[in-house]
């Protein structure tokens, strides 16, 4: 279903988007380049060693976040619905998850959950379950998604609740179903409200993906530890790793600010 | 006037917790009729109006709109497409332009093509006198203009009945008349209207019947001239003396 064309009314401010904080991102990137070029030993060695770790970090973060956006919305909508039983289950899920440290949850999914599966396999005598071996990246994505979806559902819930009730009433009184009203009236407005907290969640998730290093995910932090163990140069290793995280988080912050600017309404 | 009422309200009760907001309301509205409901705040007049398209559920009694009883979810949606509603706070969609506001429900509920929906929207905007605002956002319009857009948005669904819930109460005084003029024209065209409003002038000019509600009940109903000039009930007189100064 297409909505009426939006481009017919470009009433957003015509001022160009000027964001001085891009300079900070640029500065950090230049520092990384300078280190690598001016002191290839050890900085270039470190960068080459952790390069695949950066890819894994980005992969785990993006896949988890896409799932979090989806699952969080579903949980958020259930928590706002009148379905008492489902709402109760969703509330318990959110409260339980928020009360357990992320690290513990990741360890649970990688170590405890597979052993549970194996026990069940042994008791029913089914070898695929008995010999179940978890995939570290998949379990990390599962753990991060289940954890962050709980937080994200609260962000969605607050965003939807911030839209005045009259909006839903007007949409319903025009004959729209609940889901049509959500999709075309409530969510497009709620998205603008929740964009900053959603951006924060993304950046926190990006940083917390480093926790997956303890459950065998070969991401940036784990690769850094491996390099340090092999080279015994902790200072340069963790300087490089820190700068690489900083590039990613600052970049993400700027992208969120840009999206915020692009979607804001003229007041 | 047809004998069969287009809105039939029978012994409707509504509680908000312990508050008995509607206490057995009976009302028939006929096709082409304009009914104005007045009454002190908290008298249940807005609640009654919102029950007609089931924005508010009622606890007892029945409401039949255009032959459709308000019971199942399908029936409620069927009724809502036949009943337009205009709110005190306009409730335009702030993220859409005026044109998009009027087209959205036409397209996803009435399944009209974009060109058709926009043609209808422009025609209605001319009717309410602000075609030049089609591409503006609601926040760029005055209150009176926003309310006229809200009326156009409701009319675009070709409703058989229009409900107005204090449509001018949130407006600055100098903007009230432009909205009332649109409503007067609508009444002259034969639209069935139920209006909650204290605009006595509008009631005199357009209404076939005026109703005074108090404490969840209809106290008195009569042609506006009779209700405003020679009310039978003491409560009506007391209320009018406050409204008419």
From TrEMBL, chain A:
Kinase: present as a keyword of the record?
no
Specify whether Transport is a keyword of the entry: yes
Note the CDD domains from the entry: TM_PBP2
Output the superkingdom of the source species.
Bacteria
Q: Where in the cell is it found?
A: Cell membrane
Q: What does the entry list under GO cellular component? A: ATP-binding cassette (ABC) transporter complex
Topological category with respect to the lipid bilayer: Multi-pass membrane protein
Membrane-traversing stretches: 21-38, 58-80, 92-112, 132-151, 232-259
Q: Where is the ABC transmembrane type-1 domain?
A: 54-256
Going by the UniProt record, its keywords in alphabetical order are: Amino-acid transport, Cell membrane, Membrane, Transmembrane, Transmembrane helix, Transport
Family to which the UniProt record says this protein belongs:
Belongs to the binding-protein-dependent transport system permease family. HisMQ subfamily.
Protein name from the UniProt record:
Amino acid ABC transporter permease
TrEMBL record, chain B:
Keyword DNA repair listed? The answer is no
* Gene Ontology MF, one: ABC-type amino acid transporter activity
Q: Which SMART domains match?
A: AAA
Provide this UniProt record's keywords sorted from A to Z: ATP-binding, Nucleotide-binding, Transport
* The UniProt record lists the keyword ATP-binding: yes
Q: Which InterPro entries match?
A: AAA+_ATPase, ABC_ATPase_HisP-typ, ABC_transporter-like_ATP-bd, ABC_transporter-like_CS, MetN_ABC_transporter-like, P-loop_NTPase
Which domain of life does this protein belong to? Bacteria
Which Pfam family, just one, is annotated for this protein? ABC_tran
Using the record's annotation, list all stretches that form the ABC transporter domain.
Answer: 7-240
To which protein family does this belong? Belongs to the ABC transporter superfamily.
Instruction: Quote the PANTHER family the UniProt record gives.
Output: AMINO ACID IMPORT ATP-BINDING PROTEIN, PHOSPHONATES IMPORT ATP-BINDING PROTEIN PHNC
Name this polypeptide is given: Peptide ABC transporter ATP-binding protein
Source organism phylogeny: Bacteria, Bacillati, Chloroflexota, Anaerolineae, Anaerolineales
């Amino acid at each position: 279903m297409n909505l009426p064309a939006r481009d017919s009314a470009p009433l957003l401010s015509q001022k160009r988007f000027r964001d001085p904080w891009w300079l900070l991102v640029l500065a950090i990137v230049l520092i990384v380049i300078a280190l690598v070029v001016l002191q290839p030993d050890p900085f270039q060695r470190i960068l080459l060693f952790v390069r695949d770790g950066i890819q894994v970090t980005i992969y785990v973060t993006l896949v988890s976040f896409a799932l979090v956006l989806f699952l969080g919305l579903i949980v958020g909508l259930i928590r706002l619905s009148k379905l008492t039983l489902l709402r109760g289950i969703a509330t318990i899920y959110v409260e339980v998850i928020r009360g357990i440290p992320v690290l513990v949850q990741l360890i649970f999914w990688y170590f405890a959950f597979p052993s549970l599966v194996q026990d069940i396999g042994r008791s029913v005598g089914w070898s695929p379950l008995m010999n179940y071996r978890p995939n570290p990246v998949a379990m990390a994505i599962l753990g991060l998604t289940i954890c962050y979806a709980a937080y994200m559902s609260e962000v969605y819930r607050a965003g939807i609740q911030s839209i005045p009730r009259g909006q839903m009433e007007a949409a319903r009184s025009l004959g729209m179903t609940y889901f049509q009203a959500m999709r075309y009236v409530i969510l497009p407005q709620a998205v603008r409200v929740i964009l900053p907290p959603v951006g924060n969640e993304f950046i926190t998730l990006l940083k917390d993906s480093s926790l997956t290093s303890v459950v065998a995910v070969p991401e940036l932090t784990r690769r850094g530890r491996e390099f340090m163990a092999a080279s015994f140069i902790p200072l340069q290793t963790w300087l490089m790793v820190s700068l690489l995280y900083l590039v990613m988080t600052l970049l993400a912050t700027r992208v969120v600010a840009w999206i915020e600017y692009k979607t804001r309404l003229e007041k | 006037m047809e004998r069969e009422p287009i809105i039939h309200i029978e012994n409707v009760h509504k509680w908000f917790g312990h508050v008995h907001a509607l206490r057995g309301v009976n009302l028939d509205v006929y096709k082409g009729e304009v009914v104005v409901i007045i009454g002190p705040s908290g008298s249940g007049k807005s609640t009654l109006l919102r029950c007609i398209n089931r924005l508010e559920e009622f606890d007892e009694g029945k409401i039949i709109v255009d032959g459709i009883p308000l019971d199942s979810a399908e029936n409620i949606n069927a009724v809502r497409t036949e009943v337009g509603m205009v709110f005190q706070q306009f409730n335009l969609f702030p993220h859409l332009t005026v044109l998009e506001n009027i087209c959205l429900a036409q397209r996803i509920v009435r399944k009209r093509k974009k060109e058709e929906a926009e043609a209808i929207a422009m025609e209605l905007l001319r009717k309410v006198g602000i075609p030049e605002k089609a591409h503006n956002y609601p926040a760029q319009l005055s209150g009176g203009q926003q309310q006229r857009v809200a009326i156009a948005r409701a009319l675009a669904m070709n409703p058989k009945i229009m409900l107005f819930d204090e449509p001018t109460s949130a407006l600055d005084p100098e903007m009230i008349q432009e909205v009332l003029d649109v409503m007067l024209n609508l009444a002259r065209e034969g639209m069935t209207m139920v209006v909650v409003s204290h605009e006595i002038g509008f009631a005199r000019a357009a209404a076939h019947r005026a109703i005074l509600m108090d404490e969840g009940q209809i106290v008195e109903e009569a042609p506006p001239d009779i209700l405003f000039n020679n009310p039978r009930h003491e409560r009506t007189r007391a209320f009018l003396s406050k409204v008419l100064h």
